[in-house]
Amino acid sequence: MCATGKPVKETSFRTRSRGLWRLAASFCGVALLALLPICARSSFLSSRVARQASSLKEDSVGVHASNPAQESVAAAVWRDSLGDGFPDSARLESAIDRENFSHWFTFLAEDQYYAPMAAASTEIQDCAGLVRFAYRNALISHSPAWRERAGLPYDPGFGDVASYHYPFGPLREKLFRSRPGPLAPEDQKQGAFVEFADSSTLLRYNTYLVSRDLRAAQPGDLLFFHQAVQHESFHTMIFVGRSRFQSQDADWIVYHTGEVNGHRGEIREVRAETLLQHPDPHWRPVLNNPNFMGVYRWEILR
């Protein structure tokens, strides 16, 4: 490179000095032209490395690096066309997204009965814990690395929800609404959405009533019961439909018992037909049971 500075003072050798100056200037010009391809290549490589580095994402259960494409979804203006408190951008509007969500939701819930994940044991302590776990993990990106770490008994071959991936969607990590009312711009910052939700909160603000007839249930729907005599009065079960672990041609329901007589409960799976014949009529999902609140569906599927 050629440094710039004050002009060279002319001496009695003016002609020679001017000739040397022109020669030096020509040399610098040639040198700069020679450097241009190198600089251009260096700039290209630097930008390429930067693009590659920015494209890398940490892929682990529940933890992901920033995703600019999905960050733009989270920054979108919220609209609540149904007035139920959920942004339209959080709803799964395409049929394939709703199908993939329901597949993953029911598969992961049922999988906790047959092959429970070690990482899920601390979260799943009751019926709502099982529902939250399956819901959240149905919305993530199920990469090959995630599937291997999750220890799934087999790869179910489902596609992912394409609209957004947890935790980069409009609601970020706080997926569950915690209070009534239509959507407001300040809701996300003022506690209207939370990471934790009990059965009562899931019932009141995150799902909507489909029917009190079990025959209307679709895979991924929730059955809610209210047992006023119990300490935790609201309970929920997941309607699986046809099992991906059972060969029997029947509809199945999976749920967590919650604490039983002071002892930690467990996950159970039962045929819908068996639940209809439950020895305690308070747990039968039938129209004449006032404790059965009905079949509910997720607001994001409305």
List the helices and strands and how they pair.
Elements lengths: L13 H42 L3 E2 L2 E2 L3 H7 L20 H20 L12 H12 L5 H7 L25 E2 L15 E2 L4 H7 L1 E5 L10 E5 L7 E9 L8 E6 L10 E5 H5 L15 E7 L4
Antiparallel strand pairs: 1-2, 3-4, 5-10, 6-7, 6-10, 7-8, 8-9
Helix pairs in contact: 3-4
Describe this structure as you would to a colleague.
The radius of gyration is 31 Å and the shape is globular. Helix content is 33%, strand content 15%. It is an alpha+beta fold. A hairpin with a 2-residue loop joins β1 (59-60) and β2. The strands form three sheets. The protein has a six-stranded antiparallel beta sheet with strand order 5-10-6-7-8-9. The longest helix has 42 residues, at 14-55.
Keywords:
15% strand, 302 residues, six-stranded antiparallel beta sheet, disordered N terminus
Describe this structure in a few short sentences.
The protein has 302 residues and is α+β, with helices and mostly antiparallel strands. The protein has seven helices and ten strands. It has one domain (69-301).
- Note the run of SSEs as H and E: HEEHHHHEEHEEEEEHE
- The side-by-side strand order for the widest beta sheet comes to 5-10-6-7-8-9
Mean pLDDT: 80
Overall outline: globular
Distance between the termini: 66 Å
Tally of individual helices: 7
Tell me the number of structural domains: 1
| Topology, number of strands | 10
Poorly predicted sequence stretches spanning 5 or more consecutive residues: 1-66
